[in-house]
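Retry 2 of 3 after timeout on previous attempt. Resubmitting structure tokens to design endpoint.
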């Protein structure tokens, strides 16, 4: 599907928001991704849709990986540039079940699918942990209700330390669903903690964006 860059907003910590024209007939569910085609028109990378389903444009929240084929190239796009994306696809559904209470864990750009739920009018979670490397990552990104956990440097409006430092405070009631997105290390640690506390796998949902080998997240 052809689209066009409407806006590119760089954030201080290395994330950027890419706002794209919404192709005719494009309909998605929060948690869906699109595959974005790179400069050779062949290679793609998946990016989660961060905007609301009713918004007149599409939005992606991307971590720029210096030297990365797609993210570095996308970060240099200009307003009006043409891009090619796939139709939406995905299986991660942090907004479901609709009536269940939810706790969300995100690292870095892994906050994108949760933003999509909130911007689509979905229910606010009981708790929303967002782990970032630096307080700079918090600048200019609207993440309502999130507790930002800043692992390095000045925490600013966030709280210092890794978000997995305080897992013992996480509510464990039987009606809560847990959704996790971002770095695999966080997802493995939180999943192991929840399973160890007796939370059944059916109430733990996750999507990995980056592995521990990644230089950034
Ligand atoms: C379902 C899904 C949804 C995603 N959604 C988002 C999103 O919303 N926002 C976002 O910023 N990213 C997202 N990603 C990650 C994204 O698809 C790319 O992997 C990322 O942008 C890096 O691509 P690149 O072409 O810039 O780097 P590449 O050219 O692929 O890699 C450059 C270097 O970076 C390192 N690296 C990068 N990615 C990885 C990795 N996954 N594992 C190991 N090493 C790695 C390697 O050292 C590699 O040599 C998502 C991934 C998945 C699977």
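Retry 2 succeeded. Sequence:
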């Amino acid at each position: 599907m052809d689209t066009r860059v409407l806006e590119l907003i760089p954030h201080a910590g290395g994330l950027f928001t890419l706002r794209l024209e919404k192709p005719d007939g494009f309909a998605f569910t929060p948690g869906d991704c699109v595959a974005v085609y790179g400069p050779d028109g062949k290679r793609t990378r998946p990016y989660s849709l961060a905007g609301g389903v009713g918004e007149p444009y599409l939005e992606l929240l991307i971590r720029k990986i210096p030297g990365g084929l797609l993210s570095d190239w996308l970060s240099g796009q200009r307003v009006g540039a043409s891009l090619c994306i796939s139709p939406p696809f995905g299986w991660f559904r942090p907004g479901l079940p609709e009536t269940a209470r939810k706790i969300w864990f995100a690292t870095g750009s892994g906050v994108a699918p949760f933003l999509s739920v909130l911007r689509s009018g979905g229910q606010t979670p009981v708790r929303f942990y967002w782990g970032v490397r630096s307080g700079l990552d918090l600048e200019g990104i609207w993440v309502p209700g999130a507790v930002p956990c800043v692992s390095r440097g000045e925490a600013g409006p966030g709280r210092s330390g890794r978000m997995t430092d305080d897992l013992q405070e996480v509510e464990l009631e039987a009606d809560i669903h847990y959704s996790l997105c971002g770095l695999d290390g966080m997802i493995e640690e939180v999943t192991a903690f929840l399973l160890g506390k007796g939370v059944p796998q059916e109430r733990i949902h996750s999507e990995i964006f980056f592995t521990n080998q990644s230089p950034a997240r």
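Attempt log closed. The chain has a mean pLDDT of 92.
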